[in-house]
Design goal:
mainly alpha, Pentatricopeptide repeat-containing protein, chloroplastic
């Protein structure tokens, strides 16, 4: 029966259901069963999601039952410490006092606590101690230590060099941590020298697109060319995405042109990102030019391409172009969706083409495209001519009934 409880507690841990895991642990004695080390370790791992207070309660219960803790117990306890580095060091000390051998998880978790507490010296100490424990720290350990060194670029570089001596491949997180330390010191060029190949550059540029750091992406792109590395489809796609995130449509267009000059084969995703940047900047003519260029290159536009172009027309109140693109989507294998109709309706409404807005709304219903609140909002920013408002209200009532069953 204890095995059944343990399996259930472990399942709760994997599902981050810490309350259920602890309830099962407390339920064991009521079922006249004695919890063993596996029971407590599984409950501890689940309780770590709640925080230090829940973990300490489980540890106290273990002590009352006089159960001997193992390295898994202490790893879970350290993991729960967040930025409470003193508590993490106490757990680490107790682990060593019991003659238990720390694992890579122990090292990484402790370094992570030091990073959150902004204690780079302690993070380096733990990383260095791992060698005396005959451990082989993995790249995750190095990444965490590098993050802790964000205010010390010299030590970050030394640690990065140590990573290479262990024949470990830097990840995107590794490069980001190194870039961050150099950014704070205003020493971008030092970080760029550490990026060994095109894959590393692409990983870093991709991170820039996720965090909207378009200026960093530009610097990386320039450095890539200085290193005589040829950008590929991933490079240009990531740069376009970074520009899109920051509404830098001019730079997005420049990168599309640069890719063309270098004969880099672009894909639909790159064009979609560039068109999205134009959409956000209400540059509908540039978006349409990109759409035309995409077709000229014999690339097949998808519904995201059409929606970006229609939305750009919506932002600029270009209802004729929006309707043309919507018709193009419906005439091809592409299926216009709720976003297509919403943008087209918005373009008509902005231009006070009320009748066309209503007709598009009715057409969406007829094509089994379910309008949402944004669709109806796009159709209702301006007053309709007398006698037509009832139709909009009727459609709104129909949608409300569909949404609420």
């Amino acid at each position: 029966m204890v095995v059944t409880f343990n399996a259930t507690i472990s399942a709760c841990e994997k599902a981050t259901a810490w309350q259920e895991a602890l309830w099962l642990l407390w339920e064991l004695p009521r079922s006249r069963l004695r919890a063993n080390l596996i029971s407590f370790n599984s409950a501890l791992s689940a309780a770590a999601a709640k925080g230090a207070s829940a973990v300490e309660a489980v540890l106290l219960c273990m002590e009352r039952q006089r159960l001997q803790k193992d390295v898994i117990t202490f790893n879970a306890a350290i993991h729960s410490c967040e930025s409470r580095w003193q508590r993490a060091f106490i757990y680490l000390q107790k682990l060593l006092q019991q003659d238990l051998l720390p694992t890579v998880v122990t090292c990484t978790s402790t370094v992570n606590v030091c990073e959150k507490a902004d204690l780079w010296r302690q993070a380096l100490l733990i990383k260095n101690l791992s060698s005396s424990w005959t451990l082989r720290p993995n790249v995750m350990t190095f990444n965490t230590a590098l993050s802790a060194l964000s205010n010390s670029w010299i030590r970050a570089h030394l640690l990065f060099a140590h990573l290479a001596t262990r024949q470990m491949t830097p990840t995107t997180i590794t490069c980001n941590a190194l870039l961050s330390s150099c950014e704070r010191a205003g020493l971008w060029h030092r970080a760029l020298r550490r990026l060994p190949d095109l894959i590393s550059f692409n990983s870093s540029i991709s991170s820039c697109s996720r965090y909207g750091a378009w200026a960093v992406g530009l610097a990386l792109f320039a450095a890539l060319q200085l290193r005589y590395l040829e950008p590929n489809i991933v490079t240009c796609g990531s740069i376009a995405a970074a520009c899109s995130a920051c509404i830098m449509w001019q730079h997005a267009l420049l990168f599309i042109a640069a890719a063309d000059e270098k004969r880099v084969q672009l894909n639909v995703v790159s064009y979609n990102s560039a068109m999205s940047a134009c959409e956000k900047g209400a540059e509908w003519q540039q978006a349409l030019a990109l759409f035309h260029d995409l077709c000229r290159r014999h690339l097949s536009p998808d519904i995201t391409t059409c929606n970006a172009a229609i939305s750009a027309c919506d932002q600029a109140s270009q209802w004729q172009a929006a309707l043309l693109l919507l018709g193009l989507a419906e005439a091809t294998v592409l299926q216009a969706d709720v976003f297509s109709f919403t943008a087209a309706i918005g373009a008509c409404s902005r231009s006070r083409q009320w009748q066309r807005s209503l007709l598009l709304l009715a057409e969406a219903f007829s094509r089994s495209v379910q309008p949402n609140a944004l669709t109806l909002s796009a159709a209702d920013p301006v007053p309709f001519p007398r006698g037509q408002h009832w139709l909009l209200r009727c459609l709104q009532d129909t949608l409300a009934k569909d949404l609420h069953g």
